[in-house]
Amino acid sequence: MAITLNSGFKMPIIGLGVWRMEGQAIKDLIINSIKIGYRHFDCAADYKNEAEVGEALKEAFDTGLVKREDLFITTKLWNSDHGHVVEACKDSLKKLQLDYLDLYLVHFPVATRHTGVGTTDSALGEDGVLDIDTTISLETTWHAMEGLVSSGLVRSIGISNYDIFLTRDCLAYSKIKPAVNQIETHPYFQRESLVKFCQKHGICVTAHTPLGGAAANKEWFGTESCLDEQILKGLAEKYKKTAAQISLRWGIQRNTVVIPKTSKLERLKENFQVFDFELSKEDMELISSMDREYRTNQPAKFWGIDLYA
């Protein structure tokens, strides 16, 4: 199953996020996921593992497991590279060992002090607060992103972690409309207004953290996972699925793309087995009642400032 983007290209509705994946584990994970049926991989310069992903992709292509045109590869422009879009994109392509990207996203709507292309540590000032560059506008960044499409380095471009106001602005100044807005959304953080706004204006929503971050975000941010919610557990029993599968199916039935992350083979298989059932309208509404407006991924922990404030 795929969603056709406003750029005309098709994006598989379920993908694998590779945040917090390292070394040999990535190669095994990507090769196994391709064998299971995954064709969409969500990367980022900030994940510091593009080179390892590239090795895995090369092996998959070299062994004939899959062809380049069968895969949809996303990566992202880091905050410190807003003034160096072309160089940053080429650096990612080199690490990923690809000639083009299917989708390139502005990772966060903020430019920070440049630390050198390919270096993605958070640029903090002496006060421990993110060193924001106020000389580079998001409009300037976006026009540089559009240049990547013209030059053939990227097929589709999009945004990530943009709210309604910033998305509206991007629509106003763009010559090439953003194809995607990737945001945190899950049953505890449904963001119905933002999702509806994007979809109304032809922007596909990709749900990062579609399972509420589970144990990983509990460890990093001290947040609770929606998978422990009794409503999801009850529906899992009803449909003979897991709470994670119910959550992913809910996301798919909202017409959002979901990119769950897991390092476990069993979960990898499980997360892909969401096309053989459908949630009823009543059960979709039941999950809608779970919304807590609860963000589980909070970069303020690392940046000393809450950009969502």
TrEMBL record:
One of its GO terms (molecular function) is aldose-6-phosphate reductase (NADPH) activity. SUPFAM superfamilies: NAD(P)-linked oxidoreductase. The keyword ATP-binding does not apply. PROSITE patterns: ALDOKETO_REDUCTASE_1, ALDOKETO_REDUCTASE_2, ALDOKETO_REDUCTASE_3. GO terms for cellular component: cytosol. CDD domains: AKR_AKR2A1-2 (cd19112). Residues 14-290 form the NADP-dependent oxidoreductase domain. Substrate binds at H107. The record marks K76 as: Lowers pKa of active site Tyr. Belongs to the aldo/keto reductase family. This is NADP-dependent D-sorbitol-6-phosphate dehydrogenase. It comes from Medicago truncatula. The lineage of its organism: Eukaryota, Viridiplantae, Streptophyta, Embryophyta, Tracheophyta.
